[in-house]
Amino acid sequence: MLALNASARADEAKAVVEGVPDKGLRQAIERYIGQVKRAPQSRVQARRRAEEAAADATVVLRSEGYYDAVATPDLTASEPVRPLVRIEPGQRFLVADPHVSWTGPPPDDKSRANAEGAVKLAPGAPGRAADVVAAEGRIVGALVHDGYPDAAADPREVVADHADHTIRPTFRVSAKGRARFDGVQVKTIGRTNPLWVAHLAPWKTGQTYSPEPVAELERRLLDTGVYDSVNVSLSPDADAQGLRPVVVSLADRPKATIALGGSYSTTEGVGANARYTTYNRLRRADTETLSLQYGSILKEADAEISLPQWRGPQKTLRLGVTALQDDTDAFRQQDAGVHADLERRFGKTSFFTYGVSADFSHNDEKTLVGGLIVGKRRNLALLTGLARLSLDRSNDPLDPTRGWRFDGRVEPTLGAGDDTLVYAKAQAQVSGYLPVTGSTVLAGRLKLGSILSGSPTLDVPAPRRFFAGGGGSIRGYAYQGVGPRFPDGTPIGGQSLFETSLEVRQKFGSRFGGVAFLDAGSVSAQKYPDFRTFSAGAGIGVRYNLGFGPLRGDIAFPLNRRKGDAPFIIYISIGQAF
Q: What angle do CA 294, 296, 302 make, to 5 degrees?
């Protein structure tokens, strides 16, 4: 046990520091001097460490503007002896008369003024070395921003005047020549059409160079998601007119990927999905995706092509075709449709999408006639618009621990066939994630929805109504198990929706975690959500970190159990519930 304690002894300071009243300065010196594993084994070794520590302390003192400081190595008086550094900081030197000296031709008057204004070393400020170096970086940065990409700093001169305790920095800067943009030169390992890349350039030939357009072109290419690497930089060589092209180097990701997934619930059964994706087949960073889902309830096939940077920056056109069969307790739907969406990105994770879809739907559902439940078959042609806003300020798509998300959409719909329909379906969800400790996260969400129409007798097709209950909704209840029912227990659905959830997420090490949760909500036949009559479910769960996201297992219990409700339900899936 004694040997274990000796081996686990904490490192000790390399030397004791005395004579520095300023706490921040003393801690900076101690950090720079560092620590050692073992105490000195002799007075000679202790003296050598003290001398090394005094030299290190002098470096820190001078970097903080104490050019008259004296650091004296010594040994402590008590046994066992320890290295000691006695410091006399002296008076701190202050900045005086900083100026820029141009080596070679100076830049134009405006750029010169911008560069000199970027110094931002106020006379009388502490003469810290880090501030001087930062000022030099700002000068060069201002020149690059104003079109001088080759601007560079030559060795600076800093005069320390011990008579008046000031430093006078002189920044020697070479502006070199001003650059103007030419076109794009593409160096690619892959299939990308250079003409498509060229049309993404956010500048015109002859425009004065600025680093922002170069960075924006790189962002636009990275946003497509079809490249393993993207590098965009200004060519060092200019043509006879002084124009310099931008060189783009691209490396394609693998031509195709396959993704597999699955889920399980004691009420919804087993579900499996697969996605096959190809990239850059049209040589313009396009993506083609074939998705298949097969479950006890939903069977769906979807094909989509995504065309990024469609007729403008940060715009993605998505065209797709879908066929599905949805066999639930509330209805049986067979549907085939096409859709076209245009997504506009603003910010890194914010999107606005508008689009249109056309569906041909065959529905078998139930209705009440004279108090009797009768079957109803509807064949409908539906034209649906879409306006959607998505904001994601969380730190992880599958396992967020901080931040928030918002997703809202409005879908106006026209229907013809066995019925004539005009309505708009609106819904919005917000979720938030608050780290309470390093391993505990409090998560919550709120979802509201409403179907609006000018007709008091609107009969929305069952597949287009709101339903609640299930692993992604109100846990503890079967899929579609919350809300109004027919006398035989069949879910009816509703015209409005209210859902809320609260989770406490606790990590146990790097792989495992646990969750306690409470879900609640309601589905109403009225157009506005019902906050008074609701169903709630509670439970616990386990999480296992797969590296890319958590494997989720939950057991949930209904707190407002009705006839036909199971006493508990188990859910297994990938990713957090929200």
A: 30
547 in the same domain as 525: yes
pLDDT higher at 62 or 79: 62
DSSP state at residue 209: P
Domain boundary among 26, 57, 88: 88
Note down the domain range covering 222.
180-252
Is residue 247 located within the same domain as residue 128?
Answer: no
Secondary structure of 477-495 as H, E, C letters? CCCCCECCECCCCCECCEC
Is the pTM higher than 0.70? The answer reads: yes
- Mean of the pLDDT values across residues 284-305? 95
Residues in contact with 386: Cβ distance below 8 Å, sequence separation at least 6, in sequence order? 341, 353, 354, 355, 356, 357, 409, 410, 411
Same domain, yes or no: 447 and 490: yes
Residue 342 has pLDDT above 90, yes or no: yes
Which is nearest to 554 in space by CA: 545, 544, 567, 543? 543
455: number of CA atoms within 13 Å, CB side? Answer: 9
Residues 463 and 490 grouped into a single domain: yes
> pLDDT tens-digit profile of 416-450?
999 999 999 999 999 999 999 989 999 999 999 99
Nearest to 142 by CA among 159, 121, 119: 119
CATH of the domain at 149: 3.10.20.310
Burial of 213 by CB count in 10 Å (0-12 exposed, 13-18 middle, 19+ buried)? middle
Question: How many domains is the chain partitioned into structurally?
Answer: 4
Same domain, 323 and 377: yes
Query: How many angstroms separate the CA atoms of 201 and 223, rounded?
Result: 14
Give the three-state DSSP class for 76.
coil
Give the residues across from 355 on adjacent strands: 341, 386
